[in-house]
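Appendix B, record 7
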Amino acid sequence: MEQLPEYMNGMGDDRQMKILQMYQKQVCFILLKFKYSILAVFLVTLVAGMAVRYLSFKLSPYKYEGTVTIFYTPRASEEVKPLSINQVLAICSRQQIFQQTARDLQLSTKQLSALQNAIEVAPIRDRYDMFTITARGDSDEYVKKLINTYSAIAESHYEEYRLAELRNYLDNRTARLAELRAALDKYVKKLQSMFETFEISHPREELETVKKVQTELKASIEEMKLKLATARKRFEFAKKKNETIPAAVIQHRIALHDYSMEILKRKREYEEIRLKFSELNPRHTESRDNYTNIVKEFEAFKQKHDITGFDPAMLVGLNDILNERNAAEVDLNLLELSMKSLKAEEAMVQGKEKKLQEMMPEYDSIQVLLNTTQKETALLLEELNRVRSAIDHVPHDITGNERLLYTQEYPVFSRESVFLILAGAVLFCGMYAAAIVLFQFLYGKFSGIEEASSLRELIDTLGIFPAKDLPLTQEERDTINHKTFYNLIIHLKATRVLFSCCLDGSFLSSTMFDEQCTKARRNTILVRLITESEAEKRCAGLEKIGDFYYSDNGRGGPNFIDLDVKNDIEYLTGFASRTGSGYGYGYGYAFFPVRRLSVLEPDEISRLYHTINELKQHYQLIRIAREKPFAVAETMLRQLFDISEGVLMYIGRGQTSRKLIRQVIDLQDGNHPLYAIITGETNIKNVISGDYNR
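Structure tokens (predicted):
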């Protein structure tokens, strides 16, 4: 089965529980769907195992079985470890023991080749001081003679091996003692000399402290780099804004402002007098002369100070621009000084680290050797005494409880063999079932209405579209359609923005959807996302409004006939009544051009948000769709999830992969409802009865 998505680690307990329940239900659904094949595999495997066991017993020469128990109680110490039970078993199973047993019993070459299969040395479960030796043969007397002989030889081989190991250890430790005493003095003298040279008593702690400080400095420098980059951008931006205004305008900005205001005032006075009095009236002449004189005076001022290309709009926000440039320059200078200080401190710390790094390899090497030598020297004499004690105890390490006196006939189907056959059948059947589940999870197709219940905690299945070639009566088709669109209207009654996505392998009818919404007295618009190149072909005859192309589909919708301005979305004011007020009932469609159908770029997301918000003023339901089906969980899918208030998926029965459905569920944040309509459905019994979503 697939791993659970990483996002589940940060989601709420309720959402996580629903995800886990979905996986559990899907596993159960798949297992139930293939239950007969799984049962058949189990039965076939079980019968085959029993047949193999029966035939192997009949062909086997082993009819009798005997077992002796061996106790393993070696003397233990901290320095001289005893052999583990597994090591003892390996010694007692040597090829030399089988060969010596065959010689003692005068067995033939053929009997020698089969001897390893006739004898088994095995541990006792949960016991580390006991093991068993089991022998099988074709007669009672042969089994008893075989196991008693083999046990005695095995004990002898263990004693030889253990004594050789301990004596070799004793010789090595004795020679090692002289070496340790000579090396100890040398290592101590080297460390003392190193401490005096570097004037450091704890180099490891010093190095860790320096690394920690260096890490903090690097983080501070990186943070300072970001601040410097931001400050430089701010300064350059303010500088550019300042450079757009001539220097003379900046210098005489107060006088220019006063002149501009005075000219505007006298112009308004002149306009008012001109409307009231004739040109011969003295007041008319006086007002005109005042206006003309101030204009001439302003022009003389600009000529005197070499001011050209002046526009009163330059004065708007000029003081803010100057203040912003000065503040940005001050901040930039302070940050550059801080960066120099940090880099100087970093260089000092790096020098100290380099000094410590140069001495650490030699220091570590000497310290390891010194510690090892001290430990070995302190314990060596005690070890030698314990080794001698262990050598004396070796003959008593392994003891048998008794010689074998009785054997038992070996059964055809022993408890162990039956258990192994059952376990093998269960294991193979489990592997087969796991393979089915894994394959269905990764490559399986959605089974349709019978599988919808496994997803109902996360996906609300609203209905179906029957397969196109399915023979249905008109009454059955009407029943299915009415149930589907009744659920649509009920579940989407509070939804204003719906994202409808067609998953790979499914189909949908936009006309049917919009007509049903219209019958429910809810006007609808379909916003289709298409590429810019495709828009040039498909939208040639459509009205361009803002960022999209619009059509009322001949079913009512906005009235553009009496509008003087047709390129602004805010003029979408009329509906089927053509009155310009209130909602009408109809549906339209729009094409929204984008650069790619796999991901929306930031400006496209912004424009789409704006378009949707404006359409909300005129449509009760805005449905967003992409004509190209989603074959994988593309970035656009995630983006449209976030834009919408609800999501409607079209899932194809036997065509849409389960993996794709789970990918869509992974994109759901738990706040947006997720609905589904199954297309191509052939099983309509539960749909008509209304049981498909239970």
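Remarks on this record: Confidence is low (pLDDT under 50) at residues 1-10, 554-585. The longest helix spans residues 318-393.
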